[in-house]
Amino acid sequence: MKGSVLPHLQYALRPKWFFCAAALCLTLFASAETRAQNVTTLLERGKYHEAAQLLEKSAVSTKSVEQLSGIYEKLGDIYYAYTHEYAQALKVYDKIIQLSKKGATAEDLFLGYIKKGDVYCRMGKYEEAIETYQALADQFPPTHLAHKTCLRKIHSIQTALDDLREQQRVIRDHNGTPLALEAKFHIAELYRSPYQLNQPERAIEVYEEILQERRDTKLASEAQWRIGNLRDKVLNQPALAIEAYQKVVDYYHGVSLFAAEALFQIGRIHQEQGRYAAAVQAFEQLSQEHPDFWKMHAVFYWSGVCYEELREYRRAIDAFRTFLYAYLPNLDPIYLGAIGKYDQDPVRVKTELEAKIRQLELDFPRVEWERIKALVAADNYVDALPLIRQYIVDMPDSEHAQQARSQLRVIECRATIQGLQSISGALTPYALYRAGKICERELNDYEQAIVAYRQVIEAHPESLWAAEAVYRSGVVYAKHLNNTEKAIESYQTLISDYPSSSQTMMAHFQLGEMYRSLDQYDEAVKAYQTTIAYPKQTQYLAQGYKDSFADQAQFRIGHVHYENQRYDTAFTTFQEFITNRPYSPRLAAAHAFLGDISQKRGDSKTALGAYDTAVRLLEGSVIQSRMMVDEAYVLGFQETDPTAVIRHLNELRARVEAR
User: Fold this and answer.
1) Residues 6+ positions from 208 with CB-CB distance below 8 Å
2) Looking at the DSSP assignment, which residues form a beta bridge with residue 539?
3) Please, what sign has the CA dihedral across residues 569, 575, 581, 586?
4) How far is CA 64 from CA 77, 89, 91, 572, in A?
5) In this prediction, what percent of the chain has a pLDDT beyond 70?
6) Which of 567, 560, 553, 460 is nearest to 507 (CA)?
7) Which of 313, 424, 420, 300 is nearest to 361 (CA)?
8) What is the pLDDT, as a whole number, of residue 33?
């Protein structure tokens, strides 16, 4: 019993300062972890100086030798590898060395000396570097790893310096020859190697000298690639690295294998920087232009990663499957390093990737629909269109398939407009007109249709499409926006500004329609009569009937007189219409009006004859039935079915007989 209770009593009797200290330790640990995350984020965003400043502030407030050593290690690495402020890096590594007097570990001491020596190499101060390595070696016995490491570094520097002098001699003795150029390349390699002279900036200078001398040599493509590689992997200069790699692609495509490697590295940099669209563009170019690239497995793997980030799950699945089934089965495990799987075997990679693909397939319908909605919300209909079509094909029974089908036509129309807008950057008169017509006819977006038509009229007033745009504006104002004043203004503008256009005749007819709706009968008749005076534009219909605006206008003149209760004039007009237009689709309607007017006059015989003729014309003629409803609706006709129309005529006839 005592044994189980005593620890709890001891815990309860601990002083308050114990818990405060424990809480402080936890707080310090959490803050250190947060600080490390912030530094990592800043480095990923390329904000190297901000990361250094954050660590400098942390160093001032940190008392723990262990934590301080870790801060100095990160800070020194930033000055050394990112900002290349080598004098600052030296100061930081000296601070790590000094921490050994305050209880820092032997590992910290080793790190301080080694990194300090490396900084001296970067500065070209090889004697100081050798002295630094020797100082560390002297603190350990010959059998110790630190002692051996330092002597190896010293030997590498001395050997490289000897080699440097020999290559410089070759250049002097063979100036202007291929041998001298190769010696210069060898010098650049000595500077490039972190195990020899470790001066990447100086190596870049030498590579550039080679390119200035002979850009067409065999060594030139490798020299250009080395510049990109140093800026990428050693100097942490991604923008400059891409610029250098791109020159390899531009200058040496088809003549050097380094062009393919450069494209791969461009894609990887973009991917690491979160520019996934640019990354897949590089990867796709690589797979198309260099299908034999030795790391093609990695191209498909990283493409899958990028497409997943872009939420293009279909492409991500395809890319991962290509890697999984086309490449992984025969892939030497050593090449898994190209996809960041250095410590994994193919079986584990296969298992993980299969699980990822299954999850992507499960998420695909939802994510793809969200992606389509996002594109539509951003008015990006060109990109949304193929996706929504494919969505319907892939998932016809899914939750959103019906919604996709209902939106398809609108997206097609919007995509067409966007496609028109992309023609040479500025819309042509036809493109503007067509955009307006799509808005009017397909999208029912009448205000936007007017905007597009107005653009045609204002930007291209001499264009053939301007007159059409004025006419369509009048139609939109009249039929959809209920703005009679604007409609009349549009038609009058068309008549005055484009008198010889084919739309002018139609404008006169539409003016007749406007005036008729305003009960301005005399003006309506004048407009219709002007329409008739224009050359006929005949439309041939079934059953031998012929239609035209003139036919319609002459019929409307009779209709106007009828509406104005000028029955005698209306009767004469319809009689002339029947005589002059024996093939009109409105013959039955004209006879129906004659029957109604005759009934109003009390002339039953003529009324019955007119109705009988109308019935005879209607029998078996859908065209006459439809025109009866369109033109004689005031007489009570509603249905286009010939049987129903005839039945109504017979009802009118029966009323006459009942008198």
Assistant:
1) 223, 227
2) 547
3) positive
4) 20, 21, 19, 113
5) 94
6) 553
7) 313
8) 60
